[in-house]
Each structure stands twice: as structure tokens, then as C-alpha cells.
Specification:
The chain is mainly α. The protein is 80% helix and 0% strand. The chain has nine helices and no strands. Helix 2 crosses helix 5, helix 3 packs across helix 5 and helix 4 crosses helix 5.
């Protein structure tokens, strides 16, 4: 038990890297990509709607690891043709980009589903009392859409936290890859992986509590 506790203490300093990938890839890039992909489908834009669907089908039909390799090996080659050399860029940059592009597809579906969940009658009623498009979005659509989107978004965060372990494939020393190395060197792989499991489960419980409180705060906007 003491050895497992020692592994936990040694692995915890690597946990912020996992959160960094989630915050930059998931919250910044992922939400931006999600909005860009969702809008053409929400407004039925002829050409862009088909391009959005093509993007979604590709992300759904290929493993995250394959997408990570495509970004890691393909992006520097594409940019090299424009005179930009990224061959010595920190692999973490490509991890953030790849995960942001991947999670953006899921976020776009969350956005589309949550916006469509708001009844058309409420929107028409808001217009009928003199609200403009921005006021309808801010006062009617967004408060209710956020409530619908929250559980799915929280589940995405849980899934994203576990998927960040794939970053080791291109040389990023995150928590799982560090634990694997420590287990192989010390010949105590079981203890190392058990320590990883304890850390992930503790983070899961903490996030679950945080998200539960957030859902309670949002419940006042819950759809009838």
C-alpha cells in the first residue's frame, strides 16, 4: 500500500498536463469548431451543411489515435509547402489541435440537439412581443439550451480526460505514459496502474460533484 501511495504522489504532478489538453483542446478549440460545424446544420446552409456532415462522418468513422497521427504527421507537411516549418514544434501542440478537432464534432451535435430542443412556439412568442434575434437568443434559446447541453457536455469531459492518455503515442509525457514507464522500470506495473486508477477515479468523483452543483444552478432554466 505504501508503494501505491508513493506512485500516486509521483504521478500527480503530471495530471495538470491532462487538464491543459482538455481546457485548450476541448473548451477553446473544441467549442469553436463545434459552433462552426453546428451553425450550417442549424440554419440549413446548402453547401456548408454538407461539408459539416462530411466532417462529422469522418471524425465518427475514424479512431482518435488515427486522427492524432494525421494531425501530427500531416499538418507540418502541409504548412511546409507554405514556408512554415513546424517539424520541431512541441508534440503537445498537435495533441491539443487533434483533440480539439475531434471533440468539436461531438460538441457540434450537442449544440444542435440542445438548440433544437427549445420549442419553436417559445421563439415565435418572443418575436411576437417585440424581441429582436439577439434578445431571443440570449433570453429564450441559450438559457434552455445550456440546461439540455450540460449533461452531455459533462459526459464529454469525463471521456476526454481518459482519452488524453493517447498523447503518449507521439511522445507527450502525460500521466499514463509516465506511470507505464515507472512500472516497467521498477517491475511494479500493477502498483503503478493501480495508482493511476486511484487518481482518475478521485478526479472523476471531484468532477461529478462539481458538475452536479452546476446542474442544480442551471435547473431554474429547465424545460417544462
Amino acid at each position: 500500500m505504501e508503494l501505491i501511495f508513493q506512485y500516486v504522489l509521483k504521478l500527480l504532478p503530471y495530471l495538470p498536463l491532462n487538464f491543459f489538453v482538455i481546457l485548450c483542446g476541448g473548451l477553446l478549440i473544441g467549442i469553436f469548431v463545434g459552433v462552426v460545424i453546428a451553425l450550417p446544420r442549424l440554419y440549413h446552409t446548402p453547401v456548408l451543411r454538407h461539408l459539416s456532415y462530411l466532417y462529422l462522418s469522418f471524425v465518427r468513422g475514424t479512431p482518435v489515435l488515427v486522427q492524432l497521427f494525421i494531425i501530427y504527421f500531416g499538418l507540418p507537411q502541409i504548412l511546409l509547402t507554405t514556408g512554415i516549418d513546424m517539424r520541431r514544434t512541441n508534440p503537445l501542440f498537435f495533441v491539443v489541435i487533434a483533440y480539439g478537432m475531434n471533440w468539436g464534432a461531438t460538441i457540434s451535435e450537442i449544440i444542435r440537439g440542445s438548440v433544437n430542443a427549445v420549442s419553436r412556439q417559445q421563439i415565435e412568442a418572443a418575436y411576437s412581443i417585440g424581441m429582436d434575434s439577439f434578445q431571443v437568443l440570449r433570453r429564450v434559446v441559450l438559457p434552455q439550451a445550456i440546461v439540455v447541453a450540460a449533461p452531455n457536455f459533462f459526459n464529454l469531459v469525463f471521456s476526454a480526460l481518459k482519452n488524453t492518455s493517447l498523447a503518449f503515442a507521439i511522445g507527450v509525457m502525460e500521466m499514463v505514459s509516465r506511470g507505464r514507464g515507472m512500472g516497467l522500470v521498477s517491475n511494479h506495473a500493477f502498483e503503478a496502474y493501480l495508482a493511476l486508477g486511484i487518481i482518475y477515479y478521485a478526479v472523476y468523483l471531484a468532477l461529478m460533484r462539481l458538475f452536479s452543483l452546476a446542474e442544480k444552478r442551471l435547473s431554474r432554466y429547465r424545460l417544462a
